[in-house]
Amino acid sequence: MTTQTRAIRLSRFGGPDVLSLQDVELPSPGPGEIQVRHLAIGLNFIDIYHRKGIYGAPLSLPSGLGVEGVGHVTALGEGVTGFAPGDRIAYVGGPPGAYALARNLPAARALGVPDEIDDTTVAAMIFKGLTAEYLIHRCVAVAPGDRVLFHAAAGGVGSIACRWLASIGAEVIGTVGSEAKADAARRNGCAHVIVSGAEDIAARVRQITGGGGVRVAYDSVGADTFAASLDSLAPRGTLVSFGESSGPVPPLAVSLLGAKGSLFLTRPSIAHYTADPDEYRAAARRLFAAMADGTLAPPQVTTYPLDQAAQAQDDMENRRTQGSVVLLP
C-alpha cells in the first residue's frame, strides 16, 4: 500500500536550484522500518555536500535529501518492536530523505525523545549535538584545563560544542567569520575569539597560549583554515578535520605531521561514531542529559518552510545564518 506525500528531490548535482518540492509515493514501511510524519527537520552542511555530490559515495539519483529529523511514528514494519504509532522520535543517519512531510526510516536509527524538549529544539540539536558529543568526548576526550581551538564557533556545531567544552573546564579559542559573530562565540563559552581573515589565526593562538599551542583543533572549515590549525597545535596535538565548508583540504605530506611536532590527524564521520546501536543510544542519553541540566541551551535557530529548502541551503552555505537551521513541514 502506498500513500502520497511531498518531498524535496534532486535529479542532478549542483547548486540550490537543483532542489524541488515534488509529490511522491510513500510505500508502507518494510521489515525493520518505521514510518514517520515529520514535525521538524534539521538542515546540515552534509546535506549541501550531498547536493553537490562531493561527500563520500555520491547519492544515487534521483534522490531525497536530509539525514535528521523529529516526528511521530505513524506505522511499523514487520519485526519492529519498542515503538508504537504516536511515539515521538528523533533520528540521525540512515538513507537521505528527511526533507519530506513523511518518510520511512530504519527503526534502528530512531531515538526516544524526552517530553520536555520541543520539536524545533530537537531538530536544531540532535545531529549537531551528537556531532559535538563524539568530537569532544570520544574522538578526543577533552579534559579540564585543555586548550582547544574550535573553528566556526558561532555555527551550529560550534555553538553547542563550545558550550560543552567550557562546561568541562577547557579553555576554548573560537574562530568566527566576522566581528558580528564574535559576541555569539563568547556567549557560547569561548574565552578568546579570533576573526578569520582579520587576524593570523596561528599567530594569535600562539600569543594566547604563550607559545605552547592547543591540545586539539576542531576544523570544519577545511581549505581556508587547515594550515593554521596544524600550526596552532602543541607537540603531539590532534587536528580533527570534520568538514570542508570552504573547500577540500589539499593533499598533505605525512612527514609534515612529524616536522610540526609529532601531530595526530583524524577525519572522523558521525556515521562511524553512531554505527553501533548501543553507542548511538548512549551518546543521545549524554546529549539529552546535558540539555536537561542546563549545560546545553538551544542555539539560535532560523526556521524556513520546507518549500524554501533551497534558500535555506544557500543562506547556510554563504554563512548568512548563525546557530542551527530547521525546516518546518
From TrEMBL:
Alphabetized InterPro entries for the sequence: ADH-like_C, ADH-like_N, ER, GroES-like_sf, NAD(P)-bd_dom_sf, QOR-like
Keyword match NADP: yes
Domain named Enoyl reductase (ER): residues: 14-327
Region Disordered, residue ranges: 309-329
Name of the protein in question: Quinone oxidoreductase
SUPFAM superfamilies: GroES-like (SSF50129), NAD(P)-binding Rossmann-fold domains (SSF51735)
Source organism superkingdom: Bacteria
UniProt keyword Zinc-finger present: no
Keywords of the record: NADP, Oxidoreductase
